[in-house]
Amino acid sequence: MAAKRQSSGGQPGALSAHVLFFAVLALAPLPLASNKPWAWSALALAVGLACTIWGLHAWRNRAAILIPHNRSLPFALAFGAYLAWCTLQASTLLPDAWAPEVWSRAAVALNRDLAGRVAVDPSAAIETAMRLLTYAGVFWLSLHFSRDSGMARRVLWVAALSGFAYAAYGLAVHLSGSGTILWFDKWHYVESLTSTFVNRNNYATYAGLTVLTCLTLAFDRAAEASRSFDASPRGLLLALDRLRPADWFLAAAVVVTGTALLLSQSRGGFVACLAGVLAFALSLRRTRGASRLWTPAVIGLLLGAGVLLAISGGDLAGRLADLMAGSAVERRGEVYALTARQIAEHPWLGIGPGGFDNVYQAARTDAFGITKETFLRAHNSFLEVALEAGLPAFLLLMALLSALLLRCLRGAATRRRNAVFPCLGVGATALVATHSLVDFSLQIPAVSITYAALMGTAVAQSWRHGRHIHGSSAAQGGAAVEASLLPRGGQTAAQARLAGEQA
Minimal CA–CA distance to 152: which of 493, 424, 487, 426? Predict the structure, then answer.
């Protein structure tokens, strides 16, 4: 009875926070990937409310906090320092001498004194800080919710079901030839599948994250049967006969979402997805007990990817051939060179989040070779963040993200159960990092929220559980949640996992 009273899953405060969190995760891609001020403001409000509700609940019920503060505090301090610097860049608290030359030019042009700021666009810097805080809130909620393995599976199921729904919608619209996004006529990438996104490259990143999520759930379910797995033809037939409806759904979701990714014709998204799946597979190879399942699974993935590419990858193959011609690489290279030159001019303080567009317009010249295209972003998130935040803050952010990645790698190598969850963190990070070299998908709210939720789950499951967690009613509630979410045939697997964890 005492354990039941301490359970967080069934109390109104925790339930409200869970509902808000899952609503944000499922609905963030719907309104044009939430890449509009009203949409990301609504997300910030919902996430802030969920964090407040959960924080009050955890303050009243300390048993709901399953992650010791000493584990999450270093991450929180590093992010807090980075966010504080972004806010300071937009403020007037820093010396005027630190302000870029654009402020003195503006003062002369307006013939009045202006308070200098490090940020060339203070409103954009504050807006970016709000969005970063929203993503951090999603990560924090996912981290605490997903400490229970049953709830971790629920997070992934919501992400998988949502990603599948958006892929199915995108396929329906694309094959119908309507050329619309929701009820709007497309104004970009009319020939490509973009689902509810405007930019095909951003959708490709989201689709890749969905593929990785479905693969994680599939491997998690397969791990239960791997102890009796036989790689012989007879064993393979028996394994197919034991598949449940949830297993078939995950296979269908990978096919549908993979097809949608290919039809997006995003070269960077395709390569990034390959990098993510490869990193996921290699990290999974390091887990305990994966040797019997790893080889046939990888062979199946390669065959499936080859079939999908042959059927749906014709247009993408043409764009990859165009890439070899070098025109796109040349244009991006000019922007990268311009960005690197601006980093050299503002190495320590940066120009403030959201300031790239202003600096680009001022720095571009005909002599530099960029005369026709206007770039609102650097198409390399690493270079853009280094320019906007300054090199010290950029290195701090990279150290934080590297620490999270290393935490997942360590969890994949040391955990005996649920090691597939940290592997998802490795694969998702490889995917978004690869695409960030040539694009800006992480600057889109729907993509960042999905990545933050998946990483929160991966990091939470990278630590070994204490005995009190497995035997708690919170764990039982997590397994019950998963059982209610899965089709009837998949409930036995959830119940078996709970029994195994309590053993």
Answer: 424
Q: How confident is the model at residue 474 (pLDDT cuts 50, 70, 90)?
A: very low
H runs (alpha helix) in 415-444: 420-436
Query: pLDDT tens-digit profile of 407-465?
Result: 999 999 998 888 999 999 999 999 999 999 999 999 999 999 999 999 999 999 999 86
Q: Which residue has the higher pLDDT, 68 or 449?
A: 449
With beta carbons less than 8 A apart as the criterion, state whether 428 and 458 touch: yes
Q: How far apart are the first and last CA of the chain?
A: 20
Q: Identify whether the C-beta of residue 143 lies closer than 8 Å to the C-beta of residue 165.
A: no
Q: Are 46 and 20 in contact (CB under 8 A)?
A: yes
Q: How many CB atoms lie within 10 A of CB 224?
A: 14
Of 494, 462, 491, the residue nearest 224 (C-alpha):
494
Burial class (CB in 10 A: 0-12, 13-18, 19+), 3: middle
Q: Which two tokens stand for residue 327?
A: 């025109």
Query: Is residue 178 classed exposed, middle or buried when 0-12, 13-18 and 19+ CB atoms within 10 A define those classes?
Result: exposed
Angle, in degrees to the nearest 10, between helices 291-312 and 200-225: 150
Place of tokens 């390091």: 286
Asked whether the predicted pLDDT for residue 228 surpasses 90, the reply is: no
Return the structure tokens found at 366.
């005909």
Cα(138)–Cα(423) distance, rounded to whole angstroms?
20
| From 53-67, 161-175, 228-242, the region with the lowest mean pLDDT | 228-242
Q: Judge whether 425 and 459 are in contact, CB under 8 Å.
A: yes
Report the mean per-residue pLDDT for the chain.
83
180-181 and 184-185 as β-strands: parallel, antiparallel, unpaired? Answer: antiparallel
